[in-house]
Fold this sequence. Notes:
Radius of gyration: 24 Å
Oligomer: single chain
Helix content: over 70%
Order of helices and strands: HHHH
Largest sheet: none
Structural class: mainly alpha
Amino acid sequence: MKGKNIARIIIGTLFVLFVALYLTQTTGYYEFEQHKLTTLTEEQIKKFEQDVKDGKEIDLETYLELNKKNYDNRLSKLSLSLSRKIEDTVTSGIEYIFKAVERVVNEP
Length: 108
């Protein structure tokens, strides 16, 4: 009974993740984010060209800034830590399974 519940939870989680990824792809979220970065770059190029025309002192660091905000907080750090622990657990589990399969296949 426990095995069936665990399997249902895993399959349900994978399905929800698939739907979320599919929706972000179909709504064009990634393309929109890339478009925003391109627009920022074009604006920075125009600002640089204008500063060159005006004869201002040029510091390349001011044109390379992407003005990214830092959204780190306790919850995001905790979820990142949890995600890394899950990644380590899944990785070690997969390695264990493949080593077990390798032993079975290589037995005389």
